[in-house]
Amino acid sequence: MKSSKPETPVATTARVPLRLRAEVERVLLTRNQIARRLRAMARDIQQDFKNREMVVVSLLNGTVMFLADLVRCLSLPLRLDFIGVSSYGAGTQSGELVFTKDLRLDVRGRDVLLVDDILDTGNTMARVLEKLGALGPRRIRVCVLLDKRSRRIQPVQPDYVGFEIPDVFVVGYGLDFAERYRNLPFVGVLHPHVYTAKQTSSVQNPHMTSSQPAKSASQTD
C-alpha cells in the first residue's frame, strides 16, 4: 500500500461568515480544498482495496459529511455500518469512553475501512481498533480527514490522511463543539474564548452535566 502524503493547510483568502466571526476565528480548510483532497484519498483507497468488497465502518457523529463525500468518490462495492462512541465528562475534558452503538454487519474475514473525522490523542481510535479486531476482520485500514500528530498519545497510525493540522480546536464539515457548527461547509478554527467559557461554566455549576461525543468537547480522539 502506497498512499499519497497528507496535505497541510495553506493560507486561504476565504472569510468566515459575518454572523460567526465572534466565534470562529478563521477558515482553515475550504470546501474546494477538502473536495480535491478527498478525490486523491479515494484513488488511494480504490487501489488498495482493488477487487475486494469492503465494509466501511464510520464513527458517529462527526464523520457524516466526510463519509458521505468520500464514499461518493468510490466505485468499489462496499457495505456501510456505524459505531457510536461517546465520552462522558464536563467542559473540554474527556471522560469515560462508552460505546453507544455496535456494528450491525458481520465483519469476520472481511476488509474493513474505519473512517473518522479527526485523529488526536488516539485514545478513542485505539479502543475502537481493539473492539473491531476482536470481531475477526481480514484487515483494517484507518482513514481520517484530519490528523493532529502533535497530540498523539496512543501508537495509532492512520493509513489514509486528508490533512495534518496544528493543535487548534476545529469545527465545521461535521466537527462540532457542544453539537454546534457541524453544518459549516468548511473547517474553521474556533476562538478559544468559546470553549474555555463552556469549561468554566461547567466547573462553576456543579449541577451541570455534559454527555457530548468525544470530539465535541476535547477533540481527543
Fold blueprint:
Blueprint: E1 24-29, H1 31-48, E2 54-60, H2 64-72, E3 78-88, E4 96-101, E5 111-119, H3 123-133, E6 139-147, E7 160-164, E8 170-171, E9 187-190, H4 192-204, H5 214-217
Parallel strand pairs: 2-3, 2-5, 5-6, 6-7
Antiparallel strand pairs: 1-9, 3-4, 8-9
Main sheet record: 6 strands, mixed
What is the CATH fold-level name?
Rossmann fold
Tell me the series of helices and strands, N- to C-terminal.
EHEHEEEHEEEEHH
CATH class: Alpha Beta
CATH architectural group: 3-Layer(aba) Sandwich
User: What is the strand tally?
Assistant: 9
How many structural domains does the protein architecture include?
Answer: 1
Classify the beta-strand content into a percent band: 25-35%
Helix content: 10-25%
- Give the end-to-end Cα distance, rounded to a whole number of Å: 24 Å
Q: What is the typical, i.e. mean, pLDDT?
A: 87
Number of helices: 5
Gross morphology is globular
Low-confidence stretches: 200-217
Question: Radius of gyration over alpha carbons?
Answer: 17 Å
What spatial order of strands do you see in the largest sheet?
4-3-2-5-6-7
Summing up helix and strand content along with how strands pair, one would put the structural category as alpha/beta
